[in-house]
């Protein structure tokens, strides 16, 4: 039993006896013998090995577990610098001996690892980070290890055992940490080293070169294992450097989370587990110092530091201590109180309006659903950014993995970036062979404008009536849907959206003449391939051919803006313009590209980029970082693996059919237009459209309004929608219509 182990004096062996045992049992000649410090066992350094003699009261199963764990770690992570048990091929590597007092003990011979003990050295942030990383690495290496002895071990050093160990000692600490200790049962756990402390970490030239002493192994919560390491670091801060305690805490957590990110509920209890470890150290030290006066220096070496750090942390409430660690760990939650008023005060108020009369506080999303702070779930029928569904694990994991590795600009080579470029080009017609990455659709259209003006020498633009192409000053001027009354930039000409399949050539020619009257020659014709801001119009192939031919006739390049309608929304061809078999000069993409990670791109002909390169370079710091590219590649993976573009056609047909049936039953709704999962539904008037949108939110679905007068209900959901989502949306819309009819 562990109480017996803690009470029984450590083994006793003379130097001569050590020499004989090591030579006889392991065949290792010994020229020097040096005792090492130990709490309850006997450790002796002998010529590149350590003879470990377990306490006479130690259970054989515990020793076997330690040996097996070291072998497991060596196999899983061969470069992790831990000792190896000598004679690994010998099944009897644990030897039964008697110490000099005649007590039966178990002995092992293990190899040494290089370095000096970290305990007592000046702990820098770098060393603290290494300590945290090593703790995580050991924990990860033990992740698949099992041994029945671990679950049967009641070890006093287990931070969860403070109430049992403390008795009447430190009642304030025991009462405080009890709730956190109970919560550990629901947290991830396993068999852990449980003693990756500065005493058991060896360093050489400022680098951790060894992890020793698996003697405190037991089954515990993962975060309890971390708490032991964190406690060891914190108590190595001096009284004159109290502020550095938090710096070292943050460094320890950074190192740990580079290998094993912490969950918020683990950080919730971490501070209280540190308090438990500090309290255990003080209690166990006092008891053992009295029982073993000959080992007092070793036993009490942490007493002053434990007392000081325990007092310091106890000054913080559990909530304050937890909040401090959450900030250090990056798991601090946002504060939801008074969000609307705070937003208005800090974010410009009316310049950045919210959706809906009663703005929603969206706290989470999954697939096709969004959840508000009051727990209400809403079917998302609006957000094309979440093209593969909200919080898709494939995207989140790939981005998180890359962010934990490196994320820097694209002037360095990285395979994620090149792979994304190649994959995007592969979705395009052969003529479109070059990608320039940006951070948004707006920036993509700006870059396209620069390419076009350099290529053509023009200074004017041609856009569709009621178009939208971005939020910068120039893109806002190219977004006629956003113009305030009376605004008409002289360098912008407008032509009509698709109307009954009419050829746009005459309208474009007229717009070019108007530009010429103002001293501008067209450089670029821009058109959203789904004409979504114009009210969602499905143009025939002849219309796209007319756009291209009329643009070229006016001396301009033709740009297909696929930011809203692309990425498989209209089917397996990926891009709406490809259904027309008309090849534009430039294609811009954005919103859904990274499923929420800010991305955009221009895809064009190499000749246009080469012309631009004769006078300029192009670079954007955050365009196509490795993490952004990881998001882009993950999105393409999900689209392909789940065949979402093909599903969009099937689901879209069901959506249009159901909406047309519903529209036929009411005077409020009119024509239904759409291909795939982008649909526009005419509403009888703007006031009614706004009422309908608010009622739809109350019914549990989110959509938007578009079109010249804001009279078109825009349905543009994530591509994970299936027919069940369609039926749910139509049911919500039916209830909304009933509410509008009821006034």
Distinctive features:
elongated, single chain, seven-stranded mixed sheet, five-stranded antiparallel sheet, alpha+beta, 743 residues
What is the mean pLDDT? Answer: 94
The major beta sheet can be summarized as: 7 strands, mixed
Main sheet: strand order: 14-20-19-18-17-15-16
Number of strands: 25
Q: Look at the helices and sheets and give the structural class.
A: alpha+beta
Share of β-strand residues: 15-25%
Cα-atom radius of gyration: 34 Å
Instruction: Give the N-terminus to C-terminus distance in angstroms.
Output: 77 Å
Query: Which stretches are low in confidence, meaning pLDDT under 50 for 5 or more residues running?
Result: none
**Approximate shape:** elongated
Assign a percent range to the helix content.
40-55%
Helical run tally: 25
What does it look like?
- Helices cover 42% and strands 15% of the residues.
- It is α+β, with helices and mostly antiparallel strands and 743 residues long.
- Helix 8 packs across helix 10 (264-291), helix 15 runs antiparallel to helix 22 and helix 23 packs parallel to helix 25.
- The protein is elongated, with a radius of gyration of 34 Å.
Briefly summarize what is shown.
With 743 residues, the chain is of the alpha+beta class. It has 25 helices and 25 strands.
Topology (elements, then pairings):
Layout: H1 2-7, H2 15-26, E1 34-36, E2 42-46, E3 49-53, H3 60-76, E4 95-98, E5 104-111, E6 116-117, H4 125-141, H5 148-151, H6 162-166, H7 171-183, E7 189-192, E8 201-204, E9 207-211, E10 218-221, H8 222-234, H9 244-257, H10 264-291, H11 296-299, H12 303-314, H13 318-329, H14 339-346, E11 362-366, E12 369-372, E13 377-380, H15 393-403, H16 415-426, E14 434-438, H17 441-456, E15 460-464, H18 473-477, E16 492-495, H19 505-517, E17 522-528, H20 541-553, E18 557-561, E19 586-589, E20 600-604, H21 606-613, H22 626-641, H23 644-663, E21 669-674, E22 679-683, H24 686-699, E23 701-702, E24 704-706, E25 712-715, H25 723-742
Parallel strand pairs: 13-23, 15-16, 15-17, 17-18, 18-19
Antiparallel strand pairs: 1-2, 2-3, 3-5, 4-5, 6-8, 7-10, 8-9, 11-12, 12-13, 14-20, 19-20, 21-22, 22-25, 24-25
């Amino acid at each position: 039993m562990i109480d017996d182990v803690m009470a029984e004096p450590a083994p006793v062996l003379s130097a001569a006896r050590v020499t004989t045992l090591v030579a006889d049992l392991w065949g290792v000649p010994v020229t020097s013998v040096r005792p090492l410090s130990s709490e309850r066992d006997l450790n002796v350094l002998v010529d590149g090995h350590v003879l470990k003699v377990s306490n006479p009261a130690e259970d054989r199963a515990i020793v076997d577990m330690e040996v097996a764990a070291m072998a497991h770690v060596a196999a899983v992570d061969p470069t992790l610098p831990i000792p190896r048990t000598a004679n690994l091929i010998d099944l009897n590597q644990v030897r039964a001996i008697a110490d000099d007092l005649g007590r039966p003990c178990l002995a092992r011979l293990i190899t040494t690892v290089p370095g000096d003990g970290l305990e007592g050295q000046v702990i820098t942030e770098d060393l603290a980070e290494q300590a945290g990383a090593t703790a995580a690495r050991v924990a990860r290496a033990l992740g698949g290890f099992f041994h029945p002895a671990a679950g049967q071990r009641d070890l006093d050093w287990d931070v969860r055992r403070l109430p049992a160990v403390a008795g009447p000692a430190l009642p304030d600490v025991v009462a405080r940490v009890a709730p956190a200790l109970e919560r550990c049962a629901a947290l991830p756990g396993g068999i852990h080293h449980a003693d990756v402390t500065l005493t058991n970490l060896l360093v050489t030239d400022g680098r951790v070169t060894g992890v020793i002493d698996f003697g405190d192994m037991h089954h515990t919560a993962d975060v309890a294992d971390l708490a032991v390491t964190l406690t060891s670091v914190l108590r190595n801060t001096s009284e004159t450097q109290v502020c550095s305690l938090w710096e070292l805490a943050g460094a320890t957590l950074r190192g740990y989370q580079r290998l094993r990110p912490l969950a918020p509920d683990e950080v919730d209890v971490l501070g209280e587990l540190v308090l438990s470890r500090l309290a255990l150290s003080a209690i166990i030290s006092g008891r053992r110092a009295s029982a073993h006066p000959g080992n007092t220096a070793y036993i009490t070496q942490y007493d002053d530091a434990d007392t000081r750090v325990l007092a310091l942390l106890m000054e913080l409430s559990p909530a304050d201590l937890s909040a401090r660690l959450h900030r250090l760990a990056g798991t601090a939650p946002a504060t939801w109180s008074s969000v609307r008023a705070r937003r208005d005060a800090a974010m410009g108020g009316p310049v950045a309006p919210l959706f809906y009369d009663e703005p929603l506080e969206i706290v989470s999303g999954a697939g096709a659903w969004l959840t508000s702070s009051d727990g209400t779930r809403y079917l998302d029928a609006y957000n094309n950014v979440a093209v593969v569904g909200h919080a898709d694990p494939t995207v989140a994991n790939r981005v998180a993995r890359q962010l934990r590795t490196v994320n820097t600009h694209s002037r360095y080579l990285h395979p994620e970036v090149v792979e994304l470029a190649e994959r995007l080009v592969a979705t395009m017609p052969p003529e479109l062979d070059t990608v320039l990455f940006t951070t948004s659709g707006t920036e993509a259209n700006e870059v396209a404008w620069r390419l076009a003006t350099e290529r053509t020498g023009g200074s004017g633009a041609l856009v569709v009536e009621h178009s939208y192409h971005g939020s910068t000053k120039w893109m806002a001027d190219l977004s006629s849907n956003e113009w305030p009354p009376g605004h008409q930039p002289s360098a912008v000409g407008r032509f009509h959206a698709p109307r009954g399949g009419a050829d746009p050539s005459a309208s474009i020619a007229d717009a070019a003449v108007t530009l010429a009257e103002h001293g501008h020659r067209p450089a670029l014709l821009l058109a959203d391939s789904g004409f979504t801001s114009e009210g969602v119009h499905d143009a025939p192939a002849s219309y796209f051919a007319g756009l291209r031919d009329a643009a070229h006739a006016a001396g301009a390049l033709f740009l297909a803006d696929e930011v809203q309608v692309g990425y498989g929304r209209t089917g397996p061809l990926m891009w709406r313009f490809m259904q027309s078999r008309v090849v534009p000069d430039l294609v811009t993409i954005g919103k859904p590209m990274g499923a929420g990670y800010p991305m955009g791109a221009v895809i064009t002909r190499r000749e246009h980029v080469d012309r631009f390169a004769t006078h300029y370079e192009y670079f954007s710091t955050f365009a196509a970082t490795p993490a952004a590219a990881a998001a882009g590649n993950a999105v393409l993976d999900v689209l392909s693996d789940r065949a979402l573009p093909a599903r969009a056609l099937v689901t879209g047909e069901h959506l249009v059919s159901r909406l047309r049936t519903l529209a036929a039953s009411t005077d409020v709704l009119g024509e239904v237009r759409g291909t795939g999962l982008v649909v526009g539904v005419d509403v009888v008037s703007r006031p009614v459209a706004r009422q309908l949108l608010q009622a739809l939110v109350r019914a549990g679905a989110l959509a938007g309004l578009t079109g010249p007068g804001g009279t078109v209900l825009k349905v543009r959901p994530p591509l994970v929608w299936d027919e069940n989502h369609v039926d749910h949306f139509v049911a919500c819309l039916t209830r909304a219509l009933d509410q509008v009819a009821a006034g």
